[in-house]
Amino acid sequence: MKDIRPRRLLEALHRAALAGADPEAAVARALASPSVRRALASARRVGVFAAGKAAAGMARAALAELGRVPALVVLPRGHATRGVPRRAVAFAAHPEPDAASLRAGRRALRFFRSFGREDAVLCLLSGGASSLLAVPRPGMTLAQKRRAIRNLARTGAPIAALNRLRTKLSAIKGGRLGKSTAARLVTLVLSDVPGDRASLVGSGPTIRGRRGDLVRVVGSNRSGLLAAAREARKHGLSVSRAPRRLSGEAALAGRRLARRARSLRRGSVLLAGGETTVSLGALRGGFGRGGRCLELALSAARPLGGDRSLALLAAGSDGLDGSSGAAGAFADGTTVERAAARGLSPERTLERHDTRRLFAALGDLFETGPTGTNVGDWVFLLRR
Question: Residue 248 in contact with residue 197, Cβ under 8 Å?
Answer without folding.
Answer: no
